[in-house]
UniProtKB/TrEMBL annotation:
It catalyses: a fatty acyl-[ACP] + phosphate = an acyl phosphate + holo-[ACP]. This is Phosphate acyltransferase. The lineage of its organism: Bacteria, Bacillati, Bacillota, Bacilli, Bacillales. Pfam families: FA_synthesis (PF02504). Pathway: Lipid metabolism; phospholipid metabolism. SUPFAM superfamilies: Isocitrate/Isopropylmalate dehydrogenase-like. GO terms for molecular function: phosphate:acyl-[acyl carrier protein] acyltransferase activity. Its EC number is 2.3.1.274. It comes from Staphylococcus ratti. Catalyzes the reversible formation of acyl-phosphate (acyl-PO(4)) from acyl-[acyl-carrier-protein] (acyl-ACP). This enzyme utilizes acyl-ACP as fatty acyl donor, but not acyl-CoA. InterPro entries: FA_synthesis, Phospholipid_synth_PlsX-like. It is found in: Cytoplasm. Belongs to the PlsX family. HAMAP family: PlsX. It comes from the Bacteria.
Length: 328
């Protein structure tokens, strides 16, 4: 049985979307058990594999992350993280305050030995539908070359275990594909990655080629990664609006839309981050998944599924072994 802890109170639409997602997940997976942390009065689920743990506090999006984790000891997020630390749950999922969840990951769940800094990883949709593992998307704004090298190790293990890619192609995000391109950070990181015996490094990749299936793992620092991620989300939303307004402006286009309805839905599904769930905080001594703050039930369900896969494939144990041997 896979046991996952869930923060019922985190996110813009909590607890409704969380409850809907949890209900779908336990119906879908017979080997899944959920520990649900939050206000028990607001829980509408009555299921033998869903156990509600009442908490009296919640961490809001406005809370200062570290202070919130230290002061709100009876919050749903803190109690959820503690259940992973104590081995009661194998993974945890929250759509709450990102900074607070990262602090809970660091201070409660704890880092794996040899990991300098955990990294937030997402899977981005690609042209051929394979998806690409991208990190760091916001855990560390400032990074050193060694951190990017370690991100490559973490991303590679994630791609092998969760994405099921035997030998992932690892690329470094840069302003050009030539080896000498970039700033001091990317030049140093390029050297480290290029000299590595344990990484299948394919060189630099430009932002314009990220979704072209040229790599399976793309590495960058958290500042750049977060901006890229938000830009991609914005483009996807704007693209949807442009398509809608253009296609529905004339009668002949409306008829074409009816004919192409299924194809348009398929394209939307391929570009939808909700299909891939949330971001996983890699490098911790437990699986911590950050669902999008504005997640709908489908996206939160995908985040639970992602946590389940990461638990089943024993990704933390693999990282514990691999990071130690690749450290330095």
């Amino acid at each position: 049985m896979i046991k996952i802890a869930v923060d019922m109170m985190g996110g813009d639409e909590a607890p409704n979307i969380v409850l809907e997602a949890v209900e779908k997940a336990v119906e879908e997976f017979e080997d899944l058990e959920i520990l649900l942390f939050g206000d028990e009065k607001q829980c509408t689920i009555n299921h033998p594999r869903v156990h509600v743990r009442h908490t009296s506090e919640e961490i809001t999006m406005e809370d200062e992350p570290v202070r919130a984790i230290k002061r709100k000891k009876d919050s749903s997020m803190v109690k959820m993280a503690e259940s992973v630390k104590h081995g009661e749950a194998m993974a945890c999922v929250s759509a709450g305050n990102t900074g607070a969840l990262m602090s809970a990951g660091l201070f409660i769940v704890g880092r794996l030995p040899g990991v300098a800094r955990p990294a937030l990883v997402v899977t981005l949709p690609t042209v051929k539908g394979r998806g690409v593992v991208f990190l760091d998307v916001g855990a560390n704004a400032d990074a050193k070359a060694e951190h990017l090298y370690q991100n490559a190790i973490l991303g590679q293990i994630y791609a092998q275990n969760v994405r099921n890619i035997a030998q992932p192609r690892v690329a470094l995000l840069n302003i050009g594909t030539e080896a000498q391109k970039g700033n001091a950070l990317t030049k140093q990181a390029f050297t480290l990655l290029n000299e590595s015996q344990s990484i299948h490094f394919v060189g630099n990749i430009e932002a314009k080629s990220m979704l072209e299936d040229e790599a399976d793992v793309i590495v960058t620092d958290g500042y750049t990664g977060n901006m890229i991620l938000k830009n991609l989300e914005g483009i996807a939303k704007s693209f949807g609006k442009i398509i809608k307004s253009t296609l529905l402006s004339k009668l002949k286009n409306k008829i074409a839309v009816l004919v192409m309805k299924n194809d348009i839905k398929a394209i939307a599904k391929q570009l939808d981050y909700a299909e891939y769930g949330g971001s996983v905080l890699l490098g911790l001594d437990g699986v911590v998944v950050k669902a999008h703050g504005s997640s709908n039930a489908k996206a939160f369900y995908s985040a639970i599924r992602q946590a389940k896969i990461a638990s089943e494939t024993k990704i933390v144990e693999t990282m514990r072994e691999k990071v130690g041997e690749n450290h330095g």
